[in-house]
Amino acid sequence: MKKKKALNTYYIAVPREYDQFLALILVRDKNNKDIVPVRIQDNSVQAQYNATIYKVDLTHYVESNQEEQLIITETYFNRMSALPKKITIFEDQNVEIYDNPHFFSPYPTEKSQTTYKLASSPIFYTEEDATAKGGNIEYGPYRNDGAFTRSKIRLHFENTRPFPVFKNVTRVIEVSHWGNIAIEDFYKLANEGAELTGEYNKVDFNKYTQHTGKNSLKNLKAKLPYNSWGVYYKDEVGNISTSRAFRDSASNSVDMTIEPRFALLGGWKSNFYIGYNLPAKYTLFVEKADPTNYYLRQNSGLIFKGIMAEEFTIKVILPEGATEINYQFPFPLNEVSEEKSFSYFDFEGRPTFVFKIKNVVDYHDQTFTVNYKFSQNSIIREPLMILAIFAAVFI
Amino acid sequence: YLFFFQAEDGIRDAQESRGLGDVYKRQVPYQAPVASEEFESWALILLFIGFCLMMWFFIYQITYRKVERYLIKELTIGLLSALFLGSGTFFFLLSVGLYM
């Protein structure tokens, strides 16, 4: 006789064709904590059903014959593609998406229903099992689905917004023990919306003509830490003056709005730098018991919210002479390496740690720590070198 | 050194961060040896003294002939003025935001 037991493990399946576009899964059970599932090793079940399976360790045991409610949030990128791929400057952008309306799971499902929430009524939706209520398209309810039930529906609808994506973001954090952390970010921005057919001209696309280039990317909003100072926005050509920044105590941040040199139409790209400084006392900490032990706490996410970075590289440059360097991130990293950077008055170079994270979304907006040992007396080295230069002049 | 971590292999949940509250209590904000508000004052005073000493050095060089000058005095004034000019320049660079 089989004894039914309590479980605290749950498995989630994602169709392989969509898994490559998956940025993040989060699971929430009744204890209201966000759990990140772990992808399990490839096995025959995954190969047979062309699925990727993730394992979730719930925060508590579910007794047999008991029900449990789980909220699973999956964040995808590049699932929507512009259709038509090229539009004129006056047309609206339309996108299409394919999806599986059944609940794709390693377990059988008694009842399921899927609702697609769109801003307005779609141009086209697959009619089978569908009920359209304005912008909400409901599929189902489906009863007694087996495991790994697959099907495909297509939606074609209007979405006139630009699709900003950062192809690459590189952040350099330089620590100075004279009281400042200097941060410089380099962004490769692209608008992955519908492209322009024909030539671009200022007669059709200008700020006086209404309703042109609706899917063009004209500005972006960023939030910098509240104590930032010396903020600059520039690119290879030079300073870009079309930006505004405001230190807002209500939101405890510096709210910055930037406008690229030109509005990015679909398929266009732009690169720029944003730099700022932080006084060390807000992000660099010393252990009370051991004053040679330093902790640098920094944000591991982007200053732009709601935009994904395909690759995010963080370089932390510590002062020359820092040793026993450790780091701690609240999520796993794709790649870590160590190198040396050379700056003013450096002999052996400054220890630099390079952290790489792929597909960075708002979830990665957390704090990471780099911990190192540094003898405070070595900061005297820099002024001593200037002294030596002057002394040489006199001698 | 190159370390590769596969993102799929070990995603830990956010509960790990619960331990950080205790860790944060043992850490105090870092205080630089000189507060940033004082950089300009230090720069001005040190550079001023440095220039005075430098003027004294040059005047000493000019007014006395080589045989009448004392090497010790030259070296002391020279090095002292280098000390003040050097640290003054250093604080001047810090005050305009060029941290080293």
Please describe what this structure looks like:
The complex is a heterodimer of chains A (395) and B (100). By secondary structure, chain A is mainly beta. Chain A is built from four helices and 29 strands. Chain A has helices spanning 16-19, 44-49, 280-283, 381-394, and strands spanning 7-15, 22-28, 34-35, 38-39, 51-62, 71-76, 81-82, 86-87, 94-99, 109-117, 124-125, 130-133, 136-145, 153-158, 164-176, 180-191, 195-196, 220-225, 229-234, 243-248, 253-258, 269-279, 284-287, 293-299, 309-317, 323-328, 335-341, 350-360, 367-373. Chain A has a seven-stranded mixed beta sheet with strand order 19-22-16-15-25-28-27. Chain A has a four-stranded antiparallel beta sheet with strand order 7-9-14-11, with no helix packed on it. In chain A, strands 23-24-29-26 form a four-stranded antiparallel beta sheet. Chain A is flat and about 90 Å long. Chain B has 100 residues and is mainly alpha-helical. Helices cover 56% and strands 6% of the residues of chain B. Chain B is built from three helices and two strands, in the order βαβαα. In chain B, α2 runs antiparallel to α3 (71-95). The model of chain B is unreliable at 1-18 (pLDDT under 50). Chains A and B meet through β3, β4, α3, β23 and β27 of A and β1, β2 and α3 of B. β23 (284-287) of chain A pairs antiparallel with β2 of chain B, so a sheet runs across the interface.
